[in-house]
Please model this.
Amino acid sequence: MFDFSYYTPTKVVFGKGTESKTAELIKEFGGTKILIHYGGGSVVRSGLLRRVTDSLDNAGISYVTLGGAVPNPHLSLVYEGIELCKKENVDFLLAVGGGSAIDSAKAIGYGVANEGDVWDFYDYKRKATGCLPLGVILTIAATGSEMSDSSVITKEEGLVKRGYSSDFGRPKFAIMNPELTMTLPDYQTACGCTDIMMHTMERYFTNGGNMEITDSIAEGLLRTVMKNAVILRDDPKDYDARAEIMWAGSLSHNGLTGCGNNGGDWMTHKIEHELGGLFDVAHGAGLAAVWGSWARYVYKDCLPRFKRFALNVMGMGDVGSDEEIALKGIEALEDFFRSIKMPTNLRELGVDATDDDLILMAKKCADGLPNGEFGSAKVLNEQAILEIFKASV
Amino acid sequence: MFDFSYYTPTKVVFGKGTESKTAELIKEFGGTKILIHYGGGSVVRSGLLRRVTDSLDNAGISYVTLGGAVPNPHLSLVYEGIELCKKENVDFLLAVGGGSAIDSAKAIGYGVANEGDVWDFYDYKRKATGCLPLGVILTIAATGSEMSDSSVITKEEGLVKRGYSSDFGRPKFAIMNPELTMTLPDYQTACGCTDIMMHTMERYFTNGGNMEITDSIAEGLLRTVMKNAVILRDDPKDYDARAEIMWAGSLSHNGLTGCGNNGGDWMTHKIEHELGGLFDVAHGAGLAAVWGSWARYVYKDCLPRFKRFALNVMGMGDVGSDEEIALKGIEALEDFFRSIKMPTNLRELGVDATDDDLILMAKKCADGLPNGEFGSAKVLNEQAILEIFKASV
Model:
């Protein structure tokens, strides 16, 4: 068991109609001039944005808006947001949307609160010393960014996708109304469920230290997500299933499922980030497409965890050698992915990558790792990453 | 499933030697003049208090100290602490100890930050509008007060024990070094494990709404505590078991195991509070002594939860009627209590209560309930409480 810190100051307000509390929460956390940041037109078309601006109008809170956050959110929009905040003296950010809007808002917050180029933080050059306070109205359950310390931004030049994590970036509040996620396309719902599972699995597949209570929470969370992902595949309007997935998304990435382990593996995420950077695929689908290849490459070096996963999460019987049980668990998760129409390789993902593409992605991935290697289940370098990409074609 | 709020802003620093970070954390949260509040002599004898004051001296942080917090902490000491804080211009409280020191410090914090008599908050007369910021160095895993919004204080006059909950009372940070709990007497360790379980069980036994992911966390937590309580019975120095119990204690009462249910039952706690007020018994032991009688009185009105508890927590087989399975689960938990030397009735608790005592406690308990009744598994009034007391003799 490893020492750990746990810090999740985000105030969660969860349930039907909770977006009506936006103005009240902004006031509670001291916001007076707001940048409302959102993504595509769905928050406009659904009337959500209008409801939010109406409530701010009624409360006498002034605001400016900035739409346009896209999946794998772009650095150029972040720069635009920073300029807008400075010009308008914004003192509080409100992200309305999913991980793209939230991550983009976090980056804007870092850019306003710190001198110099905000990309420095994502390029591992220096650390932020603050962030503009941020609130969230969540409309997609997936990235967990509504409670997490992380954000991921893509620099268009060179298509470089990088993450930055800091407690300053944890939102002050998160409004979570499961009803707001009901109109998501099925594919996006399934991508979200995959991303949620992966946030906990990245923490779960480690060598060198785990905590029993953390394991029990992680395993319960994974079982809950799988069960409710299937419910939503068949009935996207099931409120309780939406709520289970939404709350699982926050718990999966706020740190809870990593307490006492050694920080987690995270290589599936890092490998997928290259896919997302080069091919602009949906993050969750990208994770599903490479996970099996990663798992088969590393499982012998992390056998006790893969066996435990097979038994306690995938419900395999304790029959056969540890390696056989572990492999059955990997296959069972791939079967689950297929059952919710997630890809299990690049072809199914719709990515037709050339050998040169794979080599480029492996190189960029390794370039982004400290000393060119990373991982806890197994430490991977450029060559290992390339092998995993090749196996995932 | 019910709507919920979840707010746990406490920064947890968990692991060996983490008390060395006290001064750094106090500075991070803006403390400049500290009241160090502790209980009995053990934090003095162990050298912990000296290590803490040395670290504050080295960091140039000034402080005053106030010891003497006792189990079921007294209102008179709270008044003394309030006066001391006002006289010394204290702006930050540091509780070193278990639930008694923390709860007493919270009450002091309310008293300093609000005009008028602090007992008003515990007597349901009005609500606090703030609390002096508070940090914790935890030495007993039990009450979960290090992350919770609650505190319980006993007014000596009339031996009235009452709780008050408010987000203002949530500690800014909690330093948790499992090694600090290793010298606890076995009885106190077992009492702590019981209290931890009960904080989750009070939330678990509800009617009218539960959340699957919350249930899975609650059940995993309860199994973890039972397993590690037995390990500590046999080897009190087992670090990993101490750590599992310590973290379970925080998660059990910070709100996590109640998300999506309807607030919980809490009648076992309220019944025990009367025992604690009149006979000054250890809180955990008091809970164990009355739980079985409570459970047998209410289980038919909350049968699905009692059945689920028997199957998923106590590992009973799914054989027999629901009522039979539920009763087996209740018996199995009483067997567990006995296995860690916890009482399962008042006699084993060492309380020789007269009929008049029982009548008095039932009356005081009902007097402290809104409209004289409370509970979710089953709503209990004065007569029902008396029946439970009588069955627990």
